[in-house]
Amino acid sequence: MNNHVYIITGVSGSGKTTIGQLLAAHLAYPFADADAFHPPENISKMSAGIPLTDADRAGWLLALNQYIRQQKNGLVLACSALKQSYRNQLAQGVAEDSLHWIHLYGEMDLVRRRMAERKGHFMPESLLVSQFDTWEKPDAGLLIPILQTPEEILRQIISTMALPTQWGLAGLGVMGLNLARNFARRGFALSLYNRHVSGTEEKVAEKAVNQYPELKEAQAFESLPDFVQSLARPRKILLMVNAGAAVDQVFEALIPLLEPGDVIMDGGNSHYEDTQRRQAEAAKHDLFFLGVGVSGGESGALNGPAIMCGGDAQAYAQVAAGLESIAAKDAGGQACAALIGPGGAGHFVKMAHNGIEYAEMQLLAEVYGVLRWDLGYTPDEVAEILTQWAENGLQSYLLEITIAILQRREGSDWLLDKISDKAAHKGTGSWASIAASELGAPLTMMTEALFARFVAALRDHRQVMAAAYTAPQHKVTLDKDDLKQAYQLARWVNHQQGFQFIQMAAKQYQWQVNLSELARIWTNGCIIRSELMQLAQEYLSDSPDLLLHPDLKNTVTALWPSLQRTVSALSFSSRAYPCLMSALAALNGSVTAHSAAHLIQAQRDYFGAHLYERVDDPSGKKYHTHWE
Ligand code: 6PG
Question: Which of ligand 1's atoms lies nearest the C-alpha of 425?
């Protein structure tokens, strides 16, 4: 497969250079434009609008034929080759099975419009009529109408000629399948792999190809070696299998099948330390392994997720065009995808994203709980209140889905009331809390949110406790505008903690993460996209310490009394509001210049001789007191 010649033909303006360059890049072949082989007298003639004769073209065709025959590493040539006799001359002495013709054709009006848009080419539009007159319909090769995007044409060439495909996706669960459909809709030629498990996972890839029209040109596999063989090199393989052992299984099976320079991407919610371990293993085989955080759930995967990559910059450069093409776009049209940093940076920030997501969800659950049970509004009324909030600066994806959930009926009942409150989780929130503990990052809100899920999960115990106790009953008096402002401020504290967490990890691992760029990626596609995130992007570009930005300082100062009043009022509720309360504690704690923690230090020194520093000795010297 390494000394084939692909000749893309068509009249001037048919797009053969663009398609030829795309095909050459895909096959990693050299590209040549036949126009560059014209002698100066032909160029002058054409520039003057005089059509070339067969005699004018004879020397040019000879030179091209010689050039084709000299190539040893394959070639993609863009050449008008209007007549069959010209094509015969180009093919002279070239092995028939290594020569492939791709003919682009389209209506003259379409080509004329395209030529009118083209700048800096010697061929005047007036020659077009003569080109169309000269053109003879080819009797061999692939005939492709040009009324498609260049990417679609390339995909058609790849699939019709059974050329190696551009991207491989392994694992066709909901996320993998939707990402595959997203890639296909953007014109990528795909190979799809799903394992075979008798009775449960049979012909999964083939069924996907048959079920979804956009996948009809994709190649389907149940054999990993065949899947790998079908891909153009360097191979780009996106794994969409469950985090943990399944990733290791596929990764280990792939290693012996791959060749140096191939790129494996793990698009699942893997732990960043697992990613780093796999990267080190991949490097031993001269392979690349990228940890790819993908956010946006099922619909994000299909229509445009946010993508956070971690790993080698050279590997990212190979896959950037594909990932950025399928990603969501920010308000300025830029892709919500980027290389966040080396190593496990991509999966780390995805984990932090999920931690922020946990606290954002818990805050909404608390707001709903206050409005419904402490203040007595119905779910429909809560939805109305939240809609007003969304229209007044608090728009976010999570708020939007909360409103839709509150409005959903099942018959005459609210569906929400039929859903058990036994909250579940898949692990990323726990990992975030553990990583925060290891880094010494005060991630109080997302940890409270995680623990609130644990409390919720102990449903049976809660019911026993509820039967055993009655909490003191008080009426909660709270203005809902105060609640709105408290919620707004709590979200800022949550985001401050999340970005600080990432900054501390970046320092520890020397990742150099650009926080404003990360916030930009999170402005669309992901679960925590919101108006607040757009402001965070702006603020973080001036101040990596979010709450120290002067504009946000004014906002925080204005909202603070509402958070105090809210927490104060909620202390009389019989329900738990850990995230709202934690937000106030975190804010108060972070602005306390002289805290009570000096007592902690004294206690530690008292019982364990753990030493302490003194405020009147800035040298950092450690002291011990004989307390007894
Ligand atoms: C996303 C989500 C996604 C998933 C969470 C759910 O960004 O698209 O975060 O990754 O929904 O992992 O996590 P829990 O099951 O732990 O709530």
Answer: 16
